[in-house]
Design brief:
This protein is of the alpha/beta class. It has a single domain, classed as Rossmann fold, CATH 3.40.50.9100. It is built from five helices and five strands; from the N terminus they run E-H-H-E-H-E-H-E-E-H. A five-stranded parallel β-sheet has the order 2-1-3-4-5, sandwiched between helices. Helix 4 links the parallel strand 3 and strand 4. The radius of gyration is 14 Å and the shape is globular. The relative contact order is 0.19. The structure holds 1,3,4-trihydroxy-5-OXO-cyclohexanecarboxylic acid. The site of 1,3,4-trihydroxy-5-OXO-cyclohexanecarboxylic acid has 10 residues, from loops.
């Protein structure tokens, strides 16, 4: 039985820790991924993580996930606000999809208040810092168990 969650991190998230810590917190991406992986594994899920600053890498990872993953959790960074190509790729993935953000883009600059991805995911969790990833995992678990009412 497939039990893999694909965790995707978009452009500039490799800079977490030093990038605008007042907005994104002081944790590095490695720390977020380690915490997510540990919690997921406690619930019986394996995690494959990819960070890329290139849109095409993320799109190809979504394509490949159709064969390997039951869920995708993605923080697409600024591609969230611009990438119809990533939205089209996500639309081809039949499993659970949760969009996640450390900050709350809805409370920030106007360009961040638009998401090209919101319409092709099950839902979005934003604004809780590192806790956003914990909540995204909980959302995935409930959606996979059919109890996300
Ligand atoms: C972000 C929010 C985006 O607007 C921004 O471009 C990021 C990070 C977040 O996690 O809060 O790179 O996705």
């Amino acid at each position: 039985m497939k039990n893999e969650i694909l965790l995707l991190s978009g452009p500039n998230l490799d800079q977490l820790g030093s990038r605008s810590p007042e907005i994104y917190g002081v944790q590095t991406l490695d720390e977020h991924v380690a915490r997510f992986t540990e919690q997921a594994s406690a619930h019986g899920y394996s995690v494959r993580h990819l960070q890329s600053n290139f849109e095409g890498d993320l799109i190809e990872a979504v394509h490949e996930a159709r064969a390997s993953a039951v869920a995708i959790v993605l923080n697409a960074g600024a591609l969230t606000h611009s990438s119809w190509a990533l939205a089209d790729a996500l639309a081809t993935f039949p499993g659970v999809k949760v969009e996640v953000h450390l900050s709350n883009p809805a409370a920030r600059e106007p360009f961040r208040q638009v998401s090209t991805l919101a319409g092709v995911v099950n839902g979005t969790i934003a604004g809780f810092g590192a806790t956003s990833y914990d909540l995204a995992l909980e959302a995935v678990r409930r959606l996979l168990q059919g109890r996300a009412q």
